[in-house]
């Protein structure tokens, strides 16, 4: 007997097949915006849509192509961050400075992104010295515990990448001009900006033998999920102390982080045990080293504003401090 489908069933099946085809086409790691103008600074936003064989993603590694330079990854709450540095094939101009080395790979590690969710991983960088029409490939290694998924296939010039099982994310370079400082150039708490000069000293407060001064934060831009804070603690006493936690009404959570560069690898990690303040010692939270990370910020930090924080020390107790908000570049 011949089965006759109703018109509604036919349209429903067609819609289901269309959605399924679309989901399959977008099942790999891609960029949110797949085009970038020549000589522009962009926020390259990678989308990771699923885990590996239903397992949670625990690490994402991204290799940066030649022509994507001065790269600065965006930290993510709950993930450790590593930046691998190396030599460029060419020399690039960075506001008058000749630069031959920089980030060549970025790794977000020890996270836990369930297969039920997707997330984005952002790298700020400049597209430089690349001809219009060129596609820059960013090979990605997605790790889910012992399971590894490599998104690294690149079609030959003029070839079709649609039939590939594991294509590398691509950025197509289109014609454009450099109009000076892009908005992305000022985007928040990036790794390189945190290597700038320390801020002018702010108000000084005391807690027991501790003296806290020079507090400042960095301005944030729309879309930036985290903020950075810094200050100096001087222990004038003869007893060791420890900064154990920080809170602020401006954020849902404030974490204490450390950034260390060793063997050309920059690593950032949360210090869950806080920071030791030895007797007679001065400890600086400053760009490129120890710092506060503001998570779930309620209102973006704007230059000229202030951010109140409460520092809790093991022995000196609690003390309130106000951070002055400077520019994103710490000037």
Automatic annotation (TrEMBL):
Keyword Signal attributed: yes
Domain of life: Bacteria
Keyword tags: Signal
Signal peptide (residue range): 1-23
Pfam family, one: DUF1775
Residues in YncI copper-binding domain copies: 28-173
InterPro entries: LpqE-like, Lxx211020-like, PCuAC_sf, UCP037139, YcnI-copper_dom, YcnI-like_sf
PANTHER family for this protein: BLR7088 PROTEIN, COPPER CHAPERONE PCU(A)C
Name used for this protein in its record: DUF1775 domain-containing protein
């Amino acid at each position: 007997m011949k089965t006759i489908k109703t018109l509604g069933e036919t349209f429903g099946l067609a819609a289901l097949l269309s959605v399924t085809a679309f989901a399959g086409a977008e099942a790999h790691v891609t960029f949110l915006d797949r085009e970038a103008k020549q000589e522009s600074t962009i926020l390259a936003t990678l989308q990771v849509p699923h885990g590996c064989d239903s397992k949670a993603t625990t690490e994402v590694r991204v290799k940066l192509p030649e022509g994507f330079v001065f790269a600065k990854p965006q930290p993510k709450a709950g993930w450790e961050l590593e930046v691998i540095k190396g030599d460029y094939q060419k020399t690039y101009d960075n506001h008058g400075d000749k630069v031959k080395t920089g980030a060549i790979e970025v790794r977000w590690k020890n996270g836990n992104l369930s297969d039920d969710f997707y997330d984005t991983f952002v790298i700020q960088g400049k597209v430089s010295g690349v001809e219009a029409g060129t596609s820059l490939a960013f090979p990605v290694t997605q790790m889910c515990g012992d399971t590894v998924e490599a998104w690294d296939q690149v079609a030959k010039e003029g070839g079709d990448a649609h039939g590939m099982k594991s294509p590398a994310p691509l950025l197509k370079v289109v014609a454009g001009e450099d109009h000076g400082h892009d908005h992305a150039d000022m985007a928040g708490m990036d790794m390189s900006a945190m290597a700038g000069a320390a801020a002018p000293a702010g108000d000084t407060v005391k807690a027991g033998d501790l003296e806290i001064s020079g507090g400042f934060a960095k301005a944030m831009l729309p879309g930036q999920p985290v903020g950075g804070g810094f200050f100096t603690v001087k222990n004038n006493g003869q007893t060791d102390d420890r900064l154990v936690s920080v809170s602020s009404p401006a954020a849902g959570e404030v974490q204490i982080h450390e950034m260390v560069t060793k063997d050309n690898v920059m690593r950032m990690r949360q210090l869950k045990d806080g920071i030791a303040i030895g007797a007679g010692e001065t400890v600086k939270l400053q760009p490129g080293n120890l710092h506060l990370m503001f998570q779930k910020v309620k209102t973006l930090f704007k230059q000229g504003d202030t951010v109140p924080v409460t520092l809790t020390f093991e022995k000196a107790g609690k003390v309130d401090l106000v951070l002055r908000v400077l520019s994103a570049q710490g000037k």
